[in-house]
Amino acid sequence: MAGLARMVIGIPVLVLQDAEGMTVTIETRSDDTYRGFLASVEDCMNCRLSNVFVTRRDGSTMHLDHIFVPGRQIRLVVLPQILEKAPVFGRVRDAKDGKEHVRGLGRGRYLARDAMRAAPPAMPMGMPPMSAMARPPPPPTQPSFLAKRSLGA
């Protein structure tokens, strides 16, 4: 089940999850900078760092053992250069070169296109469906207001 869940989340989160256990730098919306060991990353980019050096907006620094950074507050993440060779980027390169079809890279558009190609051709406007053509037309009936008059007269 975990493999299926990894296919649903985006590539930036996958790269960030590959960086778990490495030293990263995170800049937040409030212009604070956190540099430390990336302990864990959630699917919504919430990050837990340990052994963290914090640089505040005014330039003051401090050291913290642990910190939690909400994903909605993250503006920028500086990752180690070794992640250039991450398996996620290999799958993206293969998909762009046409070597491999990767789910999550425009798959909705292509699935819709394939479904349209597999669908039966549409009927021209104004033509009844084939099932209606095979049936004989219903017998004509007398309108209800004429039927009442003939009974009473």
Can you walk through the features of this model?
- The chain is an alpha+beta fold and 153 residues long.
- It has a domain at 2-81: SH3 type barrels.
- The protein is 34% helix and 25% strand.
- It has six helices and five strands; from the N terminus they run H-H-E-E-E-E-E-H-H-H-H.
- The longest helix has 12 residues, at 107-118.
- The protein is elongated, with a radius of gyration of 31 Å.
Summarize the structure.
With 153 residues, this protein is of the alpha+beta class. The chain contains six helices and five strands, in the order ααβββββαααα.
**Oligomerization:** single chain
Distance between the termini: 78 Å
Give the beta-strand count.
5
Chain-averaged pLDDT: 76
User: How large is the radius of gyration?
Assistant: 31 Å
Strand content: 15-25%
Q: Give start-end ranges of low-pLDDT stretches.
A: none
**CATH topology name of the domain at 2-81:** SH3 type barrels
Please count the helical segments: 6
Order of helices and strands: HHEEEEEHHHH
The dominant shape is elongated
Secondary structure: elements and pairs:
Layout (H helix, E strand, L loop, with lengths): L1 H7 L2 H8 L4 E6 L4 E9 L5 E9 L5 E9 L4 E5 L8 H11 L9 H12 L11 H5 L9 H9 L1
Task: Please describe the structure with a list of short key phrases separated by commas or semicolons.
153 residues, alpha+beta, SH3 type barrels, 5-stranded antiparallel sheet, mRNA processing, cytoplasm, Sm, LSM_dom_sf, signal
